[in-house]
Amino acid sequence: MVSAFDDPSYLVAASVSKSFQGTRVLENLDLEIARGEFVSLLGPSGCGKTTLLRMIAGLLAVDGGTITLGGKVISGLPPHRRNVGVVFQNYALFPHLTVRENIAFGLKARGGSTSEVEATVDRFLELIKLPDIAERYPSALSGGQQQRVAVARALAPRPDILLLDEPFSALDRKLREAMQIELKSLLRDLGITSVFVTHDQEEALVMSDRIAVMNAGVIEQFGAPRDIYRFPGSRFVLDFIGSSSQLAGTVLAETGGELTISVGGSEVRAAGHFVRGSPVTVALRPEDMSIHLPGSAPEGHNTVPVVLRDRIYVGARTQAHFTASQGESLAIDLSPDHAGRLDQGATYAAAWSPEKTLIFPGDRQ
Ligand SMILES: Nc1ncnc2c1ncn2[C@@H]1O[C@H](COP(=O)(O)OP(=O)(O)O)[C@@H](O)[C@H]1O
Ligand SMILES: [Mg+2]
Q1: Are 31 and 70 within 8 A, CB to CB?
Q2: Residue 4 has pLDDT above 90, yes or no
Q3: pLDDT grade, residue 317 (50/70/90)?
């Protein structure tokens, strides 16, 4: 994915650190973003996402390290000399200016001619699909409209990079999902490099070329959404992205990267490197497992015996909850049809392919 971008090191944060009142918030953080890429900073509240974004914008000074944009060190420059666009969660439109004046604000500051400014404003009003609200004031707009205007205002001066801090978190779910898709396609059409802060994993998965998963001031994993979901690099990433069931196991043998693991008396195969006797956690996505009558699981699959506890209907699928032999809970996605044919309290074989088996060190926590 990254190879599709011409400059893989367009925005570079190198060994960036930040403390507040003696407390380290970011620790020697490194991040490289390609020109034209859409990158999300994803992590729980308080992990340092906004702090990093504000340092890129110049609203906060770095304590250590440098930030480079397009080959130029920007970390010492004031915000107005960085050519960055910023969109905040709370829209932050100028209330006493009309939509047209809001969008024109950054353009006028740059000294374009009136006709150029007007033409650019009109173009961005079209791009955000709101050509008819140009003369309104922000107070007469819905939250979704205000956020579209905030995006247009940030983009109109043609920034080198667009920074967005949880811009949709105040919107209801339907509108948020529509705006995610709309913004993604707008930014792709414009080819602008974007850094997007969110604590919402689905939002990050939907929108991003790459996701930097942050935890307590460090980046735990940086990769394409598919890779982060498919191959979580740590227990933190596993727990933060998507859902999984976790079984405690012990490594019985490793031969050339192929593991045999004992899980409550069942032998399970997976790829990985661990010495014999290591405690491991076997993690499984709900969509990667299937349910069969005992003894009839597909050839070559891992299986463990499980007892059906309950079923939860969630529309297109039913999530069935089972108890495994060591008391662990196992959630498996089934079609409502299939789930309806299972008996509560009965024992089944849960099966999954060795390639879909995620292995992490240590006992289940
Ligand atoms: N101006 C500040 N003064 C003191 N502490 C701050 C300040 N800004 C942020 N923090 C602290 O730094 C940590 C990271 O904050 P922030 O970057 O806002 O996290 P996030 O955006 O990931 O929720 C938090 O513990 C927060 O309380
Ligand atoms: Mg924040």
Answers
A1: no
A2: no
A3: confident
